[in-house]
Design a protein that fits this description.
alpha+beta; 25 helices; three-stranded antiparallel beta sheet
Length: 529
């Protein structure tokens, strides 16, 4: 019997045919993609290099302007990835259901571990650009770590949504109004400021659709008048009042009204009348600022991508914005490889967290961390989740397990390396050292050097005193408490200080040792963004 052995050429031909016959499971996978990296963003794009560099430059300008203008500090960054589609059909495959009816040219997607901005060739339409900028400003506000009143947060997002960058002139126009804002206010009276300032996420004024309600218009008009309008308000009044709103504890009710009158020299009713006249008068003062120094767009590093490189990035996108089962399946296959992509582990962890599978999220994020993840949002989440395992049990005699101490120190070290200006991680490190078997002198010195960066330095000083006692330096701990006692006025801090002083001096506790500790160390709620 003769056995016919096909030539190698035939084998390769058959293999190639089989491969070509397999359709792409992920929309938009081609070899026409580029990757560009700027200081604060990365961009995957099918569009021209010129368009891509312009788009990144505008986002960099918005980022710098926000922090430069309001002097906020970026403490809790979430990476942002931008996708630019030239293929409208492929773009349509990624539009979330809530946007499909509006025929958007782009959208912003907030994520647990990463945010995305997705655009198409029709992105330059004004409404899509404003929507993306509006949502992006909200994320920048969250990156400060401050919890701004809702009207202030929304008003600022509305204000910056319309910026226009003039690159040749190195200028930026801020405060441009959109006609719909004025139209939305026609026939409606502004609400009293005591009501505007008290609106929260459950209020019907906030929940009105498409940012078209009087709440959005009044929030925008108020900030526009204060910052750009020609008025006889006292110099620096708006800056003083707004600055007070970003410093906890934020005043409310009558106390807020007194702060308002002290800053502006007038009461709520008169300000309401002034802002209404300003809006109805139609004389909106757009301002032109000099563009802050931003790395030139020709410095952004660019490279072309193969199909194999873009496929997992598009699968990530499909998982993030539409929870695609196909994308999820493909990414699960990817992480079974001998050297999994840590970014895919991050994305799958984010999806697990959204689905309330915290154990799975921890598993995936810990794997990404051990592979060297430098994603600050993922490391922060890991710290919060790990910290919450132990913090509710704290009392003055509690000791952290040795393995937990090592792991938490490792996580916090990387978190602070990635984001040294954050506040929460120093608080957590102070508790770790106060309740570890062997406090780290290096970490105690680090905490002490950064007391000015934390929201509540008094609690950190109390933890430092406890750690000093554990190291046999009780007198030093008592001296720290003495200094703190002179400046502490909050009831909870006073109670904590008294308990710790009794503990250091060997006196019996005057209260349940866990009653105040739980409140002080309980991990911050991990919000599903």
């Amino acid at each position: 019997m003769r056995i016919l052995i096909p030539s190698l050429a035939v084998v390769f031909l058959l293999a190639g045919t089989a491969s070509a016959a397999q359709p792409e499971r992920i929309a938009g996978v081609t070899d026409k993609w580029r990757h560009l990296q700027s200081p604060n963003f990365e961009l995957y794009t099918q569009e021209s290099e010129r368009t891509a560099r312009k788009q990144l430059f505008h986002l960099e300008a918005l980022h710098v302007l926000f922090f430069d203008t309001f002097k906020f500090v970026e403490r809790r960054r979430t990476p942002v990835t931008v996708y630019g589609f030239a293929d409208e059909k492929a773009f349509a495959a990624y539009i979330p259901a809530r946007y499909k009816r509006d025929r958007v040219g782009g959208f912003f997607g907030a994520g647990i571990d990463r945010d995305v901005i997705v655009t198409s060739e029709s992105y330059d339409n004004e409404s899509s650009r404003e929507m993306i900028f509006h949502e992006f400003i909200h994320r920048l506000v969250r990156a400060t770590g401050d919890r701004l009143p809702l009207w202030y947060d929304e008003g600022m997002a509305e204000l910056f949504a319309t910026i226009e960058v003039n690159r040749p002139a190195k200028e930026v126009d801020v405060g441009k109004h959109s006609p719909w804002r004025v139209l939305a206010s026609m026939g409606q009276d502004f609400m009293p400021y005591e009501r505007l300032f008290g609106i929260d996420h459950e209020s019907p004024y906030y929940l009105e659709s498409k940012h078209a309600g009087i709440f959005y218009v009044q929030s925008w008009a108020t900030l526009h008048y204060w910052l750009f309008g020609r008025s006889n308000l006292p110099p620096g009044a708006a800056a003083r009042f707004l600055g007070r709103l970003s410093q906890p504890p934020v005043p409310e009710g009558p106390a807020l009204r007194e702060e308002f009158k002290a800053a502006f020299g007038i009461d709520y009713p008169e300000m309401k009348d002034r802002v209404e006249r300003y809006l109805n008068g139609g004389k909106y003062q757009m301002v032109r600022w000099k563009l802050p120094t931003i790395p030139s767009e020709d410095t952004y590093v660019m490279r072309r991508l193969s199909r194999d490189e873009i496929r997992p990035r598009l699968a990530e996108l499909a998982l993030r914005v539409n929870a695609s089962p196909q994308a999820n399946s493909m990414l699960l296959e990817e992480i079974r490889k001998p050297e999994p992509d840590r970014r895919i582990l991050e994305a799958l962890g984010g999806r697990a967290f959204r689905e309330n599978d915290v154990r799975r999220a921890l598993e995936l994020w810990n794997q990404a961390f051990d592979l060297g993840s430098d994603n600050p949002a993922v490391v922060r989440r890991l710290v919060e989740l790990e910290f919450s395992k132990y913090s509710p049990s704290f009392n003055l005699s509690y000791r952290l397990p040795g393995e937990a101490t090592v792991r938490m120190r490792l996580l916090l070290d990387r978190s602070l390396t990635l984001e040294p200006r954050q506040s929460r991680a120093y608080d957590q490190l102070a508790f770790i050292e106060a309740f570890s078997e062997s406090p780290s002198v290096k970490n105690l010195n680090l905490i002490q050097r950064h007391l000015s960066r934390v929201e509540n330095p008094a609690i950190n000083v109390i933890m430092l005193a406890l750690a000093c006692h554990r190291l046999g330096r009780t007198q030093m701990g008592l001296e720290l408490l003495d200094e703190l006692e002179q400046g502490s006025g909050r009831e909870r801090e006073t109670a904590m200080l008294a308990e710790v002083r009794d503990h250091l001096m060997g006196r019996a506790s005057r209260a349940d040792p866990g009653s105040w500790v739980d409140e002080g160390v309980k991990a911050e709620a991990v919000i599903d963004d």
